[in-house]
Amino acid sequence: MPYIEAARAIGCSNLRIVLLHVLPQCISLALVMAGMKLGGYILTEAALGFLGLGVQPPTATWGSMISSSRAYLSAAPWMVLPPGILIAVTALCFNLMGDSLRDGFDAEKNKLRFY
Questions:
Q1: Is residue 108 pLDDT above 80, yes or no?
Q2: Total structural domains in the chain?
Q3: Structural domain includes residue 17
Q4: What is the C-alpha to C-alpha distance for residues 52 and 67, in angstroms, rounded to an integer?
Q5: Which of 3, 8, 32, 36 has the most CB atoms in a 10 Å sphere around its CB?
């Protein structure tokens, strides 16, 4: 990139180039990727908890709550709804947050144009 070449031309060390030029360019990408991936991680943890492969029983997780309420599904189907809805809403919120961060950090879209 031209800004890296310019920093090398004025004699900046590699550490200074990484800390002041490369790292700020990567932070926005890392935030966007974390926001997008977090929803998938929550769904994965809920699926593992449902299968009994996640956190063990004294600790409650949404997946284990759905798994334990399967026995009462015919008599009390509303027991499954709160953890299921919370899993879906939380995953959706993190995905929307990642999408919003991507739009916010998009330089082309936010560029001021004077026509």
A1: no
A2: 1
A3: no
A4: 8
A5: 32
pTM to 2 decimals?
A: 0.68
Residue 42 lies in a domain: yes
Query: pLDDT for 46-94, tens place per residue?
Result: 999 888 887 887 888 888 888 888 888 888 888 888 888 999 999 899 8
Domain for residue 37, yes or no? yes
Instruction: Domain of residue 93: give its range.
Output: 29-110
**Distance set, CA 45 to CA 32, 57, 80, 91 (Å):** 21, 14, 17, 11
- The single residue listed with the structure tokens 């144009």 is 113
Q: For the purposes of burial, counting CB atoms within 10 Å of the CB of 97, is it exposed (0-12), middle (13-18) or buried (19 or more)?
A: middle
Residue 14 belongs to a domain: no
